[in-house]
Amino acid sequence: MCDTLVVRTDQGLLFAKNSDRDPNEAQLIEWHPAAEHHTGSTLACTHLTIPQVPHTNAVTIARPWWMWGAEMGANEHGVTIGNEAVFNRSGHAEHGLTGMDLLRLALERSNTAERAAAVIVELLERHGQGGSHSHDHPGFRYDNSFLIADPDGAMVLETAHREWASEPVTGRVRSISNGYTIPAFARAHADPIRPRIARAERRRCRTTDLGATAQGPADLFAVTRDHGDSGSPRFHPLSGALGAPCAHVGGHLTSTQTVGSWVADLRGAPLHWVTATAAPCTSVFKPVRVDRLVHFDGDKFADNRFDASVAWWRHERLHRATMRDHAAATARYAAARDRLEEAWIADPPDTRAAFATAEAEEAAWYADLVAADLRDVRPRWLRRITAAIDAAAGITPHHPPLESVPTEATAPLQEIV
User: Fold this and answer.
1) Of 40, 48, 369, 378, which residue is the least packed, with the fewest Cβ within 10 Å?
2) pLDDT at 349 (0 to 100)
3) Per-residue pLDDT tens digits for 342-385
């Protein structure tokens, strides 16, 4: 699941998205240059091959490793888009473009938010949307909503099969989650159950409230890291920590994790901030620009198995060690993380230098956690779920196996029952 929001300030627009997906799905940051294409050429998307256009824009995107499309991204004109899974009550098509395909296609083919919405509608009506949206769960399908921004404004586009509705963002804050928000369209199409399981309205209200006072990128970093009033993740046996924007895996029914986060400052020349890792609460946001050539770690092959040559997976060692005792672990490095980001907001560094510095800091924080060997305070049912996820990814924990963890441990990562 996901959360996306925009904030309209006196100086211009701010944008943020948490991309919540399968916990072992590496999400890669990629830069693609503008390009010209031969007449009659085609483009292989995730499930469909479609006609290519003569010209495509330069884009920076966050892409699930197995998809052609992107969960979020921006183009050289400042157009920035995030999508959300939404569920209509008449089911979802087995074939079509994925919402992520539609998002990337809109970035490559538009120069304004309004034009991006038109591109999505044109492609939706011509090709439809559908197909699997999960590598690990091939039967998982959904339709999509989009929050589309540029330096001059933003709009929401919601879809059900090949039908759609849109409206401009007119208030200070607009947030979308995993439910329809345009009233008439929602009444016509919304599934009454699945958004409740995903706790979509709870998260949408939370990001709306937090966004109301946001003034700059640091405020939206904090929104992406929010775990609710408790300050640490609260887990439900069915939906894990999906009750707050910073989602952590753990539910028996819905087990999703924030695998990438993006914040865009569209006030003036656009500047984008990405984690390029899972779990914004354990990560550093790094600055990226679409108008400059940068080869990210996404140039390397990645999949759903641990690979130390891929930065996303290297960060998972810190992330998963932190989750043993989230409150105690983040207390050891959150202040250093915030100071680093504060300095970078004041004077944004070169992207490559920022990535190198952030990874060195995160490696030091991980080494500190290994030395501290914090006790795993999660409830036993949650440890079983995460142990299975780690095993599926081929991650060998440096900590004692589950059987040796004391059963009397209590959980500041509060369990919701």
Assistant:
1) 40
2) 95
3) 999 999 999 999 999 999 999 999 999 999 999 999 999 999 99
Question: To which residue do tokens 């309004």 refer?
Answer: 114
Task: Enumerate the H helices of 38-169 as residue ranges.
Answer: 99-109, 113-127
At 369-379, the pLDDT tens digits run 999 999 999 99
Residue 358: C-alpha distances to residues 77, 173, 277 (Å) = 27, 30, 11
Beta strands in 22-100 (DSSP E): 27-32, 35-36, 42-44, 49-51, 55-56, 59-64, 72-75, 80-86
12-21/80-86 β-pairing: unpaired
197 φ/ψ angles, rounded to the nearest 5 degrees: -60, -40
Partners of 167 in the beta sheet? 156
* β-sheet bridge partners, residue 28: 63
- Select from 3.60.60.10, 3.65.10.10, 3.40.50.880, 3.20.20.100 the CATH code of 2-298: 3.60.60.10
pLDDT at 267: 96
Q: Does residue 96 come out as left (phi exceeding 0), alpha (psi in the -120 to 50 range) or beta?
A: left
Neighbours of 199 (CB within 10 A): 24
Give whole-number Cα distances, 157 to 7, 57, 86, 220, 243, in Å: 17, 21, 12, 22, 24
> Rounded to 10 degrees, what is the CA torsion of 245, 366, 370, 374?
-30
Q: What is the average per-residue pLDDT within 280-289?
A: 97
Q: How many residues does the chain have?
A: 417
Phi–psi pair at 121, nearest 5 degrees:
-65, -45
Q: Quickly tell me which residue has 């050289």 as its tokens.
A: 76
Nearest to 382 by CA among 409, 361, 357: 409
Distance CA 247, CA 258 (A): 5
* Residue ranges covered by each domain of the chain: 2-298
